[in-house]
Structure formats: C-alpha cells, structure tokens
Amino acid sequence: MKDRFNLYRFASPATFYPLAGAMIPYFVAVSVVFGLAGLWLGMLVAPTDFQQGEGYRIIFIHVPASWMSMFIYLVMAFWAAIGLAFNTRLSGMMAQALAPTGALMAFLSLLTGALWGKPMWGAWWVWDARLTSELILLFLYIGYMALTAAIDDNRRSDKAGALLLLVGVVNIPIIYFSVKWWNTLHQGSSVNLAKSSMATTMLWGMLLMAMCFWMYSIAIAFMRVRTIMLERERNTEWVKAVLTGGEK
Amino acid sequence: MKSRHKKLALIGGALAILGIIAALVLNALNSNIALYISPTDVAAGKAPQGKVFRIGGLVKEGSIKRQADGVTIAFIVTDTEKDITVNYKGILPDLFKEGKGAVAQGKMTADGTFTANEVLAKHDENYMPPEAAKALNDAGNRATDKKAAEAAGTPAKPGASY
Amino acid sequence: MIHWASFSDFIAMGGYGFYVWSSFGATALIMAIEPIIASRNHKTTIARLKRQIRAENRNTTE
C-alpha cells in the first residue's frame, strides 16, 4: 500500500512541477556535453566512409532524429495507455508535452533523409515503405496535436488523443522492420542489439549524438509539461502557491 | 479495481484487433508496398505488362557500357539468378557502381530489355573507412562467394543479400 | 587525430558540403528555437495566471 501511495504522490502535478523544474538544467547540461562530444567525434575525428565519402556524416543527426521520432511516440503511447487505464492526470499532460518534439524529430528525420538521399540515391524522395511510414508518423504527431487542441475539455481531449496514439502505435514496428519486410530503397539498419556494421568511431559518434537528442527531448518535454500543468491546474491551491510565492 | 482490470482488458483486446487488422491489410497490400521487383520476378511474369514499374538488384560486374555521348548507358541488373539489361539516358547517382545495388524505373520493351527513365543507387548499411573496406574485401573473398551462393539459393528477396 | 587537413576541407565535406551543412544547420536552428519558444510560453503563462489571480483577489476583497 505504501508503495502505491508514493507512486501516486510522485505522479501528482504538485510534486512533479518543482521536480521537473529542478531537473531541466541538468538535462540541458548533459545534452550539451553529449552533443559536443558527439560532434567532435563524428565531424572531426571519424574517418571517411568507403562508399559515401564525407556525405555519410548526415548520419550523425539523421539516425538520432529518426530514433527519437519513434521512441517519443512509444513513450506517448505508454502514457496514453496509463491514462486510459488509471485515469491519471499526469499522463495526458506528458503526452501533450512530448508531441511537438516528436513531430520535429520526425520532420528532421525526413528532411535530413532527403538531403542525404539526393546525392547518394539520386532522389530526394521515393515512396518506399521506410520513407512512407516515417511520413505517416509525422502525420500521426500532427493529427494528435490537432485533435487534442480541438477539444476544449481536458479529460475528453486526453482520452481522444490517447485512442489515436494507441491506434497509431502499430506504425512503429512497421517503420522499424519495413527495410526487412519489403523491398525498399532504404538500406537495412546498421545498428541493433546483436551487432553493428559501422566502424567504431562512427558508431560512437552516432550513439553520443543519440544521447544528446534524448536528453534534449527530456529537457524540452519537462519545460513544456510545466506550462501545461500551470494552465490546467490554475484553480488549484498548489498552482496559486507557486505563482504567489516567488515563482520559478 | 475491478473496472480498471476490465478497462485494461478492453484496451488490450482493441489493440490486438487493430494489430490483426493492420497485419491483414499489409498482407493484402504486400505486392504494392515493395518499391521494386527482382529480375527473377520479372522472368516469372510478375511484372505489370506495358506499365511503368521498378526493378532492383545488383549492377553486374563489367556490364556497364557507356555510349560516346556520355549520358546513354546500358548495364545489367542481376539478382544472381536472372539478368535484365537496362538502357538509360540521364544522370546517374554518385553511388551507382558495378557490384552495388540499383533500382531502375521504366518499362519492359518487346526485346526483353528494360528502358529506364530514372536510375537510383541502393547502398548497404555498412559504414567504414576505405582502408578497412579494402582489408575486408581482400580477406573476405571467400565469405563473399559463400554469401553469393546463399543468395542464389534464396532468390525471393534480393534486397536482403546485399 | 583530427581527420581534416584544412578548414576548407572541413567546410567542403568532400563535395557534399551543401547537403551535410543544410542538415546540421536545420537541426541546430530547430534545437535553438524550440527551447526559446517553450520558455517564452512558460513565462507568458505565468504572467497571465498571476494577473488572473490578482484580479480574483481584488474582486473578493471588494
């Protein structure tokens, strides 16, 4: 019983608001450190690629952005499931705070992919399964944001958004496995749990950049969720206390 | 507590149903989702007749023939089982090379060759410095032969073999 | 240790400079602007809610 009590306490906006606020600077700092290390390794130290020359260096943002676009969606779907099952206030706010960053990551993935595809493949865009399913992911993010913005009542908008997120989650394995399941122009994945087909410095540069993107996403989501919390709970005592008592 | 479990079960059930629907839809669409078909599929008559489609495979070693004008080119696309000659006039991507993957869009002609209006290069997922690639290439000829033999044994998906 | 022989080599990116630097530029731009917008939203929200609280207090004390 005690554990559950604590869990609910942690999940309550009144506790989470100052906690998130205190953690933001650390996530920003860690993100910057990872980013500088990743850029140094990827852009200055890593060797030329045997096929793609220096053009392959787009990988250092293309892959982290693509990974984050999928991962953020999974986290949102997780919060959606929690919200539907347990009716927690925090879950809808978390999903909403993550959505814009997820959409930007999907957009960056598509943009850098186009900038990479043009010189290497010979086309900015092809309708292959990998590219198309990533485009669908961007639409899912935009659809989610539009849907939740369209419904004024927070409870109902959270519920509708959660349903959309859970339906759309089937798209994530499709994106990931598309290069295995179908004939695509996009190559297979270079990194998975079992093995990697990248030289060590290249791989480390990419992983560091992925960590940078990850920490960045957490920091920006915390910034946004704090705004959403104040807005939604403006009539509660804790928000009034935060606003009147030398706000942060 | 009980209603929570019920809700979880409902959500789980809905997700399972959606998953099955998606799987069915994808299965039905399977033939259309593939960006290209292999020369083996073309030989088996799976290519749309008189319509534009894409073929994909490896550019056969030593098969590239350039005309004097510099933009007209002929090459053979192979999946190590069947070969198709492709005629193309235009700019080629940087990664278009013999022994590497390529995807060509166009139509079959009456004489069994393929006339392309667009040629794209398909590269693999390996990233390494040129020296490492060379060392790997020198040392791994045996492995490559073995892989090619395996690929020839499973002609269904040329994409997986390179 | 450093892969590049000169700064101009680094900028040229072996002829892929346009594609590489456009990618990095767009990403840097987005990652700079997004936090600015988020923190500005936070500040304006706080200011607006504070005004509302003050207005409510005035109404109840009158």
TrEMBL record, chain A:
Q: How is it placed in the membrane, per its record?
A: Multi-pass membrane protein
Among InterPro entries, the record links this protein to: Cyt_c_assembly (IPR002541), Cyt_c_biogenesis_CcmC (IPR003557), Cyt_c_biogenesis_CcsA/CcmC (IPR045062)
- Report the residue ranges that make up the Cytochrome c assembly protein domain in this protein: 26-186
This protein's GO cellular component annotations are: plasma membrane
Q: Which UniProt keywords apply?
A: Cell inner membrane, Cell membrane, Cytochrome c-type biogenesis, Membrane, Transmembrane, Transmembrane helix, Transport
Principal localization reads membrane
A single GO BP: cytochrome complex assembly
The compartments listed are:
Cell inner membrane; Membrane
Q: Which GO terms describe its molecular function?
A: heme binding; heme transmembrane transporter activity
What the protein does comes down to: Required for the export of heme to the periplasm for the biogenesis of c-type cytochromes.
- This chain belongs to the protein called Heme exporter protein C
GN (gene name): ccsA
From TrEMBL, chain B:
Q: Which is an annotated GO molecular function term of this record?
A: heme binding
Region of interest called Disordered, as start-end residue ranges on this chain: 131-162
Task: Please name the GO terms of the biological process aspect recorded for this protein, alphabetically.
Answer: cytochrome complex assembly; protein-heme linkage
Q: Which residues are on the Extracellular side of the membrane?
A: 29-162
**Binding-site positions, heme:** 123, 127
Keywords, alphabetical: Cell membrane, Cytochrome c-type biogenesis, Heme, Iron, Membrane, Metal-binding, Signal-anchor, Transmembrane, Transmembrane helix
List the GO cellular component terms.
Answer: plasma membrane
Q: Where in the cell is it found?
A: Cell inner membrane; Cell membrane
Its biological purpose is as follows: Heme chaperone required for the biogenesis of c-type cytochromes. Transiently binds heme delivered by CcmC and transfers the heme to apo-cytochromes in a process facilitated by CcmF and CcmH.
* Gene3D superfamilies documented for this protein: Nucleic acid-binding proteins
Name assigned to this protein: Cytochrome c-type biogenesis protein CcmE
- How would you describe this protein's topology in the membrane? Single-pass type II membrane protein
Output the superkingdom of the source species.
Answer: Bacteria
Q: Which HAMAP family match?
A: CcmE
PANTHER family named in the record: CYTOCHROME C-TYPE BIOGENESIS PROTEIN CCME HOMOLOG, MITOCHONDRIAL
Q: Which family does it belong to?
A: Belongs to the CcmE/CycJ family.
Q: Which gene encodes it?
A: ccmE
Q: Which residues lie on this side of the membrane: Cytoplasmic?
A: 1-7
